[in-house]
Amino acid sequence: MPKNKTHSGAKKRFRVTGSGKIMRQRARHVHKFQERSSSDARRLVNDVVVAPADTKAVKRLLGK
């Protein structure tokens, strides 16, 4: 039986915490910060937990 492969796109976008939660970056976090206020930019820094409805699908893509 061959090994399962992790989805390449998913491993770049999600991470699993020690307790098993799936974390993701907020949208609009990557570039064009000059168009945002400092408070908006700071708010986007923190990772958030993936919605419960998406957790099962993301875990399957990550091979967890």
Automatic annotation (TrEMBL):
Keywords of the record, alphabetical order, are: Ribonucleoprotein, Ribosomal protein
How far does the signal peptide extend, from start to end residue? none
Record-level GO BP terms = translation
Which Gene3D superfamilies is this protein grouped with? 4.10.410.60
UniProt GO MF annotations: structural constituent of ribosome
Q: Enumerate the InterPro entries for this protein.
A: Ribosomal_bL35, Ribosomal_bL35-like, Ribosomal_bL35_sf
Q: Name one GO cellular component term.
A: cytosolic large ribosomal subunit
Q: Would you say which domain of life the source belongs to?
A: Bacteria
HAMAP family linked? Ribosomal_bL35
Similarity field: Belongs to the bacterial ribosomal protein bL35 family.
Under what name is this protein listed?
Answer: Large ribosomal subunit protein bL35
The organism named in the record is Branchiibius hedensis
Task: Tell me the lineage of the source organism.
Answer: Bacteria, Bacillati, Actinomycetota, Actinomycetes, Micrococcales
Q: Which gene encodes it?
A: rpmI
